[in-house]
Amino acid sequence: MDSVDQREQEKLIMFISFPLSSIIILTNLLIIIGIACNKQLHDTPNYFFLSLLVADLCTGLALPFIPLMGLNRLLNFQSCLVVHIFPNFLFLSFLFNLVMVHYERYLCIVHPLHYSQFWVHRCFPAALLAVWIPPLLYASLPAFGWNNWNEILDTNTSHANVCDYNSREPGSRHNCSGNTNNEEDYCFYNKIFPKPFIYLEVYGLLLPAIFSILAMTGKVLWIARKQLRDICKLNRSVEHSRASEHEHSLNVRYTKCVAAVSLTFLVCWVPYIVYLHVSVMLFRGAGMRYSSLNIILSCTGIGSMAIIPIILSFANRQYTEPVRNLLMKIRTRCTRVQDLTNPT
């Protein structure tokens, strides 16, 4: 890749990822402070959500570094491992936390009477470790030898030896390019992540996690619809009428909920699923070039995923109540200052 093109792509990454990263970090900090300041929210379900917010905050910090994995950089082996393993671990832990939050709420809705007996509620420390330790172990596998660094280095060395041998033959016209010089110092994701590692992560961890979240959400909506029908039947049997205002309001709320879930899927999940498939296609095709389109897809796909906890936070007024109170105080003071400076 030309150095000028790489600098342009680095500028594009910072231009797209920095505003998204700043919004994600600032919003998560405000919500975390709001939960910490409200003692009524200090229970197991909110601790899971607090862990998700911390993981989302870390994802916001790692967001500018994830698209940089597709660019070649002059780094040694240890530095190359860090810049690839650490962002991958943070994003995997974020996804595991998101699955755990949905699973905990799913159990609470599907089995409300037996919720306290499940391991998620009784063994909270073990459940918390389950969303942080496995991502760390899997992301660290390249550091324990599952990488292509030595294979690519051996290939480059043998290629250089063949070129040197052919150049010594009299009358040889074999021309070897100088692209192998110091190529062992170039850091890119093909050297750190082997193809089986990528396929296992995408099709064995990421996509099953996404589909499990969608399945649990669909199950909860189906249960809510069934309960809504029972309430409507009971209401009609009592009031002896076809429909009441209360029934109409319940149907409107359910329709809004379905619309919100569908919009969240289109805005947050679809861009990331598209980014996953484009990344796999890019990884398969050795001749494909890391273009500006891939950078835009990676930034928007991961950024849209990181917005999901923020959307879930806005659905609970208790999480945003301290922030709303602070904004109301600031607004009141600004109004008082404006009234004092402009008396009528």
From TrEMBL:
Gene Ontology molecular-function annotations: G protein-coupled bile acid receptor activity
Signal sequence bounds: none
Keywords linked to the UniProt accession: Cell membrane, Disulfide bond, G-protein coupled receptor, Glycoprotein, Membrane, Receptor, Transducer, Transmembrane, Transmembrane helix
Topology with respect to the bilayer: Multi-pass membrane protein
Membrane-crossing segments per the record: 12-35, 47-69, 81-103, 123-141, 202-224, 257-275, 295-315
Superkingdom field: Eukaryota
Entries under PANTHER family matching the protein: G-PROTEIN COUPLED BILE ACID RECEPTOR 1, OLFACTORY RECEPTOR AND ADENOSINE RECEPTOR
The protein's name in its UniProt record: G-protein coupled bile acid receptor 1
